[in-house]
Sequence to fold (155 residues):
Amino acid sequence: MKYVDLNATVNGVTGVISPQSYLDLLPELGAALPVGARAFAADVDHYDFVGERCVKDLQLARIDGPDNGDLTLFFRHNCWKHEEDLLIRYEGVTRFAVETAEDEALPGPVVLDEILPHPNGCTHEFAFTSGSLNITCRDLYASWIETDCPDKPKD
Fold:
């Protein structure tokens, strides 16, 4: 991660996850991002740690591709925080790298992500509790998919 700090010191507490430097630069960075990437990165809930549409704590459940330059990531919700799954479609993928712990097929859950401009479109980097994922692509499109959380108390 270039701007998202996974080991920040905030109010004297060390080891805090802080996207603040990234958020401060996002208006400038966003202007250089492709349209789909910009919409996902600039979503007001994206970095709201208590928000239902924050990527933090989602579990990567499936990777489809890369196939003919396209890739799809499917993230599973957890009913204690999220009520929706997240599907991200990547177009024009030119780089895809995933690192996991030795005994895991997929990394997870998500700690945080960062989307940056790239000459070929954008890069999307995820930090997981046990690995990382990096993608360079022409653009990406994120969709939240409604799910059922039968055990979650209703307000």
User: Anything to note?
Assistant: The mean pLDDT is 89. The first helix runs from residue 20 to 31.
